Amino acid sequence: MTNLLENEKRIAGIKAVNFVKSGMVLGLGTGSTVRYFLEALAEKVNGGMDIIGVPTSKKTEQLAISLGIKTSNSTDHVDLTIDGADEIDHSGRMIKGGGGALFKERIVASHSNEIVIVCDHSKYVETLGKFPVPVEISPFMELLTIKMIGKLCPNVTLRNNGEFLTDQGNHIVDCNFDNIENPEETYQILRSVPGVVDVGIFLHMKPTLILGEKGYAREIKLGENVTSERT
């Protein structure tokens, strides 16, 4: 199964290059599927395609630079963002932040004219929640922050016992809900806790999903009350 999912990631990542045009300012997501996209994009760049990438993490920035992709953290617009998701439902609502880059991912995605999500078939779900929701929190008085979050989600763990740090120097707690009936409400409640920097539930972005599945990639346009598909 692992090899199957890895191949689906590769297929989805490579197909996403078809959305990129020379001259674009391109949001570069974080994660294993995005790596396949970046490697395929580098071939286009080395062949003459001119793009500027806006990386959503230090790890992505380092990889992009090593592949010869120009990067910038200061642009006045983003034409397109290619990113992954830990889970995405049929309305385009997502859980993101498994790699800890949710803060920058949200900023870049929110300023993008178009968003393309690449993932394997296991990430496309009916209901969000099987994957834990990452919540980025400030280290300042974090025990109290975690205590408040624990009242909202009884199964909360501090990632790597606090050894994991985001690019902003914050910690991540992972909230295990198992099933999230109302992602909008869950996001608002968690985001309202003092000390919370960001919550890994992404809403209202109407992404195009490139889904690796059974040896090919499906292209699905998602959004509230709108789902269309083509191969």
The CATH class designation of the largest domain is: Alpha Beta
Q: Could you name the CATH topology of the largest domain?
A: Rossmann fold
Average pLDDT number: 95
Number of strands: 15
Q: Which ranges are low-confidence, i.e. pLDDT below 50, for 5 or more consecutive residues? A: none
Structural category: alpha/beta
Query: What string gives the helices and strands in order?
Result: HEHEHEEEHEEEHEEHEEEEE
Biggest β-sheet: count, sense, barrel? 7 strands, mixed
Q: How many DSSP H or I helices? A: 6
Beta-strand content estimate: 25-35%
**What is the straight-line distance between the termini?**
23 Å
Report the helical percentage: 25-40%
Q: What count of domains describes the coordinates?
A: 2
Strands of the widest sheet, in order across it, are: 2-1-3-6-13-14-15
What shape does the CA trace take? globular
The radius of gyration over CA amounts to 17 Å
Which architecture of the largest domain does the CATH hierarchy give at level 2?
3-Layer(aba) Sandwich
